[in-house]
Each structure stands twice: as C-alpha cells, then as structure tokens.
Amino acid sequence: MIDLSNLFPEEQSIPEAVQLKGSIEQREYLINGELLQWQGNLSPVASPVFTKEGNEYKQKIIGSTPLLTSKEALAALDAAVNAYDLGHGAWPMMTVAERIQHVEVFLGRMVEKRSEVVKLLMWEIGKSQKDSEKEFDRTCDYIVDTINALKELDRKSSNFVQEQGIMGQIRRVPLGVALCMGPYNYPLNETFTTLFPALIMGNTVVFKPAKYGVLLIRPLLEAFKTSFPAGVINVIYGRGRDTVGVLMETGKIDVFAFIGTNRGANELKKAHPKSHRLRAVLGLDAKNLAIILPDANLENAVNECVLGSLSFNGQRCTAIKIIFAHKDIVDQFLKRFCEVVSNLKAGMPWETGVNLTPLPEPGKTDFLKDLVEDAVKHGAKIMNEGGGKINHTFFSPAILYPVNDKMKIYSEEQFGPVIPIRSFNEEKEVIDYVLNSNFGQQLSIFGRDSKTIARLIDSFASQVGRININTQCQRGPDTFPFNGRKDSAEGTLSVTDALRAFSIRSLVATKITVDNKKIIGNIIRNRESAFLSTDYIF
Q1: Do 321 and 240 share a domain, yes or no?
Q2: CA distance 405 to 410
Q3: Would you say residue 409 lies in a domain?
Q4: pLDDT tens across 64-83, in order?
Q5: Rounded mean pLDDT of 318-343?
Q6: Burial, 25: exposed, middle or buried (Cβ in 10 Å; 0-12, 13-18, 19+)?
Q7: Chain segment 174-231, per-residue pLDDT in tens
Q8: Are residues 131 and 223 both part of a single domain?
C-alpha cells in the first residue's frame, strides 16, 4: 500500500539544489523581436506541490504569467504575417542552410538553460527530476534530428528529374503563418516537436505555451529573441478564449498545430473562416488498450502495463488506459499487477526513484474520484489496497475490476492514475471495443502465438496508428510515425513527417531544350535563385 501520510514535505526539508529562489513574476512576452513588458493582470502559477507548516498544508505558488488580451495576440499575429510577407519575407526566402544556422544558434543557447528548465518542469507539472531531464534532453535531440533530416531532404531535392521531355526540380516550401500550442504533460518536448519543424521549414510562428508548464518557457525567451529575425517567432500568454480564438477568426493562420482535446481542436478549427486553406496537425485524445492473451509472458505483460498506464501518473496520450485480460489469466495478472503497483514509490518530483507524483491539473483528483465512484456503483471493485486515496493534489492509483460498458471509465479518457481492467473470453469482444471506440491512436498485444497475434494485427491495422507487440504504447523512437485515427489525431508526426506537415512541394519545370538548359544552368552556376540550387548541405 502506498503511504500518503508523509507525502508532502516541510519547506526546510526541500533540497537547496531544487529550490526556487523566490516567486517568479513574469511580465515578458515576445512580439516582433522585442521582449515587451506586460503591465496588466497576471495569472498565478500554482505548483502541485504542497508544503507542510505545522498541521497545515499550503500549496506552493511559484510565480505568475501575463494575462494578455486579444490586442496583444493580434499584434503577435501581425508580426508573424509581416515577417512571412506572403512568402517574400527574409525568413521564408532564406536558404535551408541559413535557417539551419539560426536553429543551431538557438539550440546552443537552449542547452545553457537546462538546469533552470528542468527545475521548473518539476515544480510546475510535478514531473520527476529524471523524467524532466529526459524531456529536456530528448527535445534537444529532436531538434538535432530535425536539422539532420532537413539536410537529407534538401540533398535529395537538389537533384533534377526528367520525365517525358520535361525537366524540373521539386522542393518543399513553407505554408505561411503557424499557430503552435502544446500540452501540459510534455510542455517542452511535444510543443517543440511542432514548433521547430514549422520554423525550420520557413514558416513564421505564433506560439502559445501550454496551460500548465508556462514558466519553463521564460528562460528561453531571450534565446528566441536573439536567434531568429524579428517576427519569425512570437510568444504570447493568457487564456485561450481571450487570445487564440480571435487569431483563428482572422483567417490569417495557415497552419494549426495543436495537442489537446478533440473538442478544443474542433472549436478552434470552426472559427477559421476558410477551413479549406487551414492545414491542421493535431494530437488529440486517446483510449489506448492492452490485450493480455492467455499465453502471454505474465511478468513482461505486467511490467509493461504498469509502465504504460502509470508513467508520469498516466498523464500521457500514449498511456495504456484500459486493459483486457483473457479470463484464463486475468486472476494471475490482477494479483501481480496490484503487487507491482503497491511497490511504486510516491513522493516529490526531486526524490530519487520516485514513480508517482502530485497532479498539476486543478480539479483532477475530483474528476478521477468521480470516475472511480461511478465504476464502483456499476459493479467494479478497487482491487489494490489504498487505491483512489487522495491527499490534496496526489491521487493514489486505483485498479478497477471488473469494468463494463455502463461505466464512464470504460470509454472516457481518464488521463490519470486509474486503471480499468476487464476480462474477455472471445477475441471478438476486444475487436468490437476497438471498432466502436471514438479513438484510434494505439494498442498493445501481449502473447506468444504468432497466428493469434497476426489475426489481431489484421483486425486492428485499419483502426489505430500503431500496434505494439509485447511492449507498452509509446511515441518513440521519434523517427517512427506518430499519428492516430478517428478522434485521436490529424496528420502524422515524426522527424521527417513533421517537415512535410509544415511545408508543401513546389516545382520549377521546363521543356528540355538547349535554350532552357542554358537558362537553368546559368541560374545554378551563378547562384541566382534560393529555390533552384544544387548545393549540397554537409
């Protein structure tokens, strides 16, 4: 059983290395290459961490961020529109090599802020120090991989093709102005996996940080300002209803990169007056399931499902959010699963070996409590001792069994440490669940019989974006496509797919004649065009 009695620390017991030096009052925001100072209202940033003061517990307020209005949001959009200048701005007209140099400058300055960003990740969203460091490092690696992928793409594009008496060069060019918004669970990594492909392909960007995990962008504002030309990247803050909706209503957003709920994405897309001109790259809700076949390696299935369902408290779109275990193995699976969960370490993000931490989203524990109570009302039991216990922002993992379709947890995404488990007898029960689900991101199959696994693969390949065999659902490696079906996603992301998502192919072509070859040859030899080029980027 997970002990919650001494979960939150006294102020003086917090290690000095992870302490924040006072409250961070952020008033800076970036528009048109200037760090402006906001003089209006601020939004307090509450940490999921509470501290004990005698017999009282007090939530840590670690800072505040600007509550900008539609006026500032539109100013940021104007800056991005002007910097793009219908494709004639300095940034979209740069060579690929020149844009890469700007991104490399930013990356060098970003690395210098590692400890500061990692500390803010821990305090703002309750992510463990190990996972916060991993998120920062993985983000840097992603930017490097993006640079290398663009170099490779540009090398291939430097060739001329000849078909049916026509010669031409095909290159990828930017789409225009991008609005990038990321999620609170990976406020650095998943945000930058759209932000930097958009930038490096020549788009200009309005970037609004996640609802939670806002302050951690502050250390990078100066790097954004000094690494890119004015107006190329603009960073705004505030409530979405005051800032984002008005941007979409202008019709000036060409690419919408958003990771959040499908309801939020639908509302924002509807606000755009010319939806046919809007390219959307969306990572949305998911209800990924694990299927435990009767011949599964029980130890592996349990360990992978615990990781898959409870890494970062289950606050991942790729988390395993429901488990179907065959009736012949379900009792053994449940027993072992509960044992492993009971041995997970709960604590503060900076504690060594911590697995479970407080939840950053206000009202989340009440939401999870409601799901558990609803499931119990409809016949489920909490299988693990202490499951569902609450201590302020901490929710002890609740393993629910047996679940059925009358329960909200059966079809709703919990995005937290509640693990519903159901037994099944026939494969059709699992197949029908996937077919009827509104979501289609991933699933995991645990078993040994190749014929059974192959049959399930063929049943699910048209329903989800990724099928995992004997391993948890996950995004990586970043070179693999990351997408989804139904209400789970729009578009595909990976290092190379993201470059394609934020660009479009453009072609210069001519008939193969002596005069035309001479013209093309002169343009290339004399470097008269940024588009037409046979330069090789090392």
Answers
A1: no
A2: 6
A3: yes
A4: 999 999 999 999 999 999 99
A5: 98
A6: exposed
A7: 999 999 999 999 999 999 999 999 999 999 999 999 999 999 999 999 999 999 999 9
A8: yes
Q: What confidence score (pLDDT) does residue 284 get?
A: 95
Q: Tell me how far apart the alpha carbons of residues 219 and 28 are, in angstroms, rounded to a whole number.
A: 11
Tokens of 213: 């995990």
Rounded distance between C-alpha atoms, residue 460 and residue 509, angstroms:
42
- Whether 106 contacts 223, CB under 8 Å: yes
Q: Are residues 252 and 155 in the same domain?
A: yes
Helix (H) or strand (E) holding 321: strand 320-326
Q: Around Cβ 103, how many Cβ atoms within 10 Å?
A: 19
- What is the predicted pLDDT for the residue at 490? 94
More confident residue, 6 or 18: 18
The structure tokens listed for 314 are: 């289950």
Asked if 237 contacts 69 with a C-beta cutoff of 8 angstroms, the reply is no
Amino acid, res. 447: G
Residue 25 located in a structural domain: yes
In the listed set 430, 456, 477, which residue is the last one of a domain according to the structure? 477
Q: Is residue 518 part of a domain?
A: no
Mind listing the pLDDT tens digit for each residue in 132-176?
999 999 999 999 999 999 999 999 999 999 999 999 999 999 999
Which stretches within 427-468 are classed as H helix? 427-436, 450-460
Domain identity same for 96 and 241: yes
Is it the case that residue 293 has pLDDT exceeding 80?
yes
472: domain CATH number is 3.40.309.10
Domain that residue 391 falls in: 288-477
Rounded to an integer, what distance in angstroms lies between the CA atom of residue 520 and that of residue 414? Answer: 58
pLDDT, tens digit, 9 for 90 and up, residues 40-68: 999 999 999 999 988 899 999 999 999 99
Q: Which helix (H) or strand (E) holds 290?
A: strand 288-292
Q: What is the per-residue pLDDT for 2?
A: 75
**What CATH number is given to the structural domain containing 147?**
3.40.605.10
Whether the CB-CB separation of 205 and 180 falls below 8 Å is answered with yes
CB 26 within 8 A of CB 409: no
> Same domain for 322 and 442?
yes
Among candidates 399, 301, 307, 381, which has minimal Cα distance to 344? 307
Number of domains in the chain: 2
Mark whether 95 and 157 lie in a shared domain. Answer: yes
Q: What gap in Å lies between CA 182 and CA 260, rounded to an integer?
A: 7
Centroid of chain to Cα 30: 22
Do residues 441 and 468 make contact, with C-beta atoms less than 8 angstroms apart?
A: no
Are residue 54 and residue 101 in the same domain, yes or no?
yes
Question: Do 370 and 437 sit in the same domain of this protein?
Answer: yes
Out of 428, 444, 477, pick the residue that ends a domain. Answer: 477
* Predicted local distance difference test score (pLDDT) of residue 538: 85
